[in-house]
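Flagellar motor switch protein FliM
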Amino acid sequence: MADILSQGEIDALLSALSTGEMDADELLKEETEKKVKVYDFKRALRFSKDQIRSLSRIHENFARLLTTFFSAQLRTFVQISVASVDQLPYEEFIRSIPKMTILNVFEPYPLDGRFLMEVNPNIAYTMLDRLLGGKGVAVNKIDNLTEIETRIMSQLFQRTLESFTEAWTSVVELDPVMEDMEVNPQFLQMVSPNETVVVISLSTTIGETSGMINLCLPHVTLEEILPKLSVHYWMQTKKKQREPGEVEALEATVRKAPLLIQAELGRSEITIQEFLQLNTGDVIELDQNINESLLVTVGGEQKYKAQPGKSKNQMAIQITEVMEEALENE
């Protein structure tokens, strides 16, 4: 974005032009000349700012879901938030993380490829200590994890994928599956070293321990859904095309739905004592005049007025009026 000049700078510029210290033609020439911008092909920016903002929005939701999940699992104070969203070569990301750390590799079906979740050892061991009943002490012995520790951690991070799926629901329906857990980044080669990846860094605090959880999303894996990460896709409203006959089938189903229709002959109030003493043949006086129309309700809503009668020796009612309230609601 171009620099905005202050009023003083504008006055100084106009003064220099009027006195001849600066030439307006030279300024115009400089403006029209092609400017060369250095581009590093090893650090290609393959994600637009729009897409980076969308990824940041998705993972802010993911961070909130993780905060809720870990708070319930660890039963302690947990705070997770998005610290940064950057795109860089895969090789640079691998060099930036500790030599011994927790690396969870998972496949985000139906996308073709793999994602990586790197958890700082301090955070990982605090989680493990809390799960085993401890106070949440971070003891970094990542180089010699036992089978039990590995199994507990794998199961814990496997369950975080449910939150990952929920965070991505607005863009694509994912069914991620945990593939492997590594501790040495040098043994992990997901994509080529120069492949551009998006790294979402989540600042994580568990109790008194702080650290980072990094998500590595390769461009080659996200490529097929990149159009869905644009603002235009998020803002546009797609009109659903109905299948032929779908409206007719829906209407036929609705027409078969049962409705309770009641004709109210009148109302009366009696005491509980009178109710308990009712016997066969007793008469209850209603507040409805014999010449007044009966009130007909459909599904509990007042719809019609009617008069009582008989049809083929059976009690029946004849609709005489549609109530105004029913006409206004239709």
